[in-house]
Amino acid sequence: MTVYESDLPGVGKKHEIELGGEARLVVVTHNTGKREVFRRENADSDAEKLFELSDGLARTVGTVLEGAYFQPVATENIDTVLGGDALIEWYEVPADSELAGETIAAADVRQRTGASIIAVEHDDDVTPNPDPGAGVTAGDTVVVIGSRAEVDAFEAAFIDPDAAGEATDIGDPVGPGTGDDADDAGGGV
Amino acid sequence: MAAGSAVAGDLNGLLALGVVVAVAAAVAAAGRRVGIPSVPLYVLGGVLAGPSVAGALGLPAIEPGTLTTLAEVGVVLLLFFLGLEFSLDRLIAARKRLSGAAAVDLLINFPVGVALGFLFGLGALGAFLVGGIVYISSSAVITKSLVDLGWIADPEAEPVLGTLVAEDLVVAVYLALAGALVAGGSPVDALPRIAVALAFLGAIALAAQLLAPRLAPYLGTSDEDLVVRTVAVALVVSGLALSVGASEAVAGFFVGVGVGATPLHDRVADRIAPLRDVFAVVFFAWVGLNTDVVAVAGVAVPVLVAALVSGPAKVVSGAVGGRLYDLSPRRSLRTGLALVPRGEFSLIIAALATASPNPTVATVVPAFAVGYVLVMAFVGTVAMSQADRIERFVGVADS
Questions:
Q1: Considering the entire predicted model, what is its pTM?
Q2: ipTM of this predicted complex?
Q3: Which CATH number fits domain B67-394: 3.10.450.350, 1.20.5.170, 1.20.1530.20, 3.40.50.1240?
Q4: How many CB pairs under 8 A join A and B?
Q5: What confidence tens digit (pLDDT) does each residue in B271-307 have?
Q6: Torsion angle of C-alpha atoms B396, B397, B398, B399, degrees rounded to 10
Q7: Using CB atoms within 10 A as the burial measure, which of A182, B101, B123, B395 is most buried?
Q8: Residues in B touching A9 (Cβ below 8 Å)
Q9: Positive/negative CA dihedral, B324, B329, B331, B336
Q10: Any idea which architecture A77-165 has in CATH?
């Protein structure tokens, strides 16, 4: 895949992205920040305008397309649905968790719940794709991926035993205070 | 050059400005509904509010003299923005293909205009001015049409915008020459003026390249300081240019180039654009105020002849330019069609011509320019919107 960039003096910049076959996606970024997105079927056909976005909106949509988007809500319970049944969820590890003070391997996360820890945040340090031997301490935030059932199992086993069996209810009060909103937002995606 | 019974003085300067801008805005708003570009309509608004229409009808007319300085601010800001977008690096990067397309554009259209000028009996200076009026396409009208029609995402956008950039550069030099020549006398008398004007512009260009990056921090950090100081620099430099007989417009262009070379580029463009929009309208309307409808009617035949000759000439030169960019025949034709509209720069040349001591040049050339811009901005815009039909007619349409 090739991206072509060209200048549009007085207007902005144009990027053309090969879509496979002869089709190209054409993104015109105006100096004002406005983005216009076109599609061109082949080299000689006219570009057909698909939509336009303001600068801020374009950046948001861009990060969603990039798969890097998540809503930075101040709660330990934020989930992102990937399509199908797959789910990514953030949990803060409570002090009484079986995971606190253990390594991922010793806690047997994968075997017990089916879910995998894909990142651990300790203070401001984020370890992506942690080694099974990596330790987790109370107060860390773990990012977990799995099916909804696996993620629920993880939550029941390591975060909040009371959540077992009720986590599928929408509006389930998971975290103190803020859990509701996050759960609703997640379920609505 | 006002015709009819001018009853100027009825309106104070503030009211005059308000009325002119309001009339121009109203005419432009009405025209936009039927797809006519704004630039010529602002001129039309000025014509209606001026001595030649409102004055002739016995209404309080606006004397162009009351708005001259504000109109000059409009010219300086128009060219300032041109300079702002102008980047030497970009020009060098695009040099090879651009110079071909730009040279074809210049070598076909400028001589066509000069020939028309001689044909109309305007003499050497008149022919030189008509050459510029016919040669220079309208960046404002064309860029807007490209965006409105979605051509901006098609391959012809590059040769079209590239040619406009090259024209802008040529017109900067052209205005410097024209300004010195219009001041009158024989070409020999004009030589020292040309030398002074070119030297002054060379000095500004050099200063823009060398000093501007170091001066940028002094333009201020707050938006308020930035706008006030940038406008101060632009007006002082362009005013000095005017006082040594150089073109204030070209001085504005180089100040823009200087500011454009600094990291302040985007913020300045953002903050000053509204200012430019307002003063540019004042300038276009001021050209209208100066226009005598009787004189425009008197040059109707030359305008028509010029339209019939120079319209196709632009299509041909643009199409050749498109071919130099390796575009298909259909896209090359579109490149030509897009370059047809004339506008703001032709009007700047017209404004320049009014200063000529030669009465034929001072009255006929501006009248011709206004008529020509009114016709060509409209014809060019229609040509672009009807490109499909024209392609079929010429036989280059896709199946």
A1: 0.73
A2: 0.75
A3: 1.20.1530.20
A4: 57
A5: 898 999 999 999 999 999 988 899 999 999 999 999 9
A6: -110
A7: B101
A8: 85-86, 90, 161-162, 164-165
A9: positive
A10: 2-Layer Sandwich (3.30)
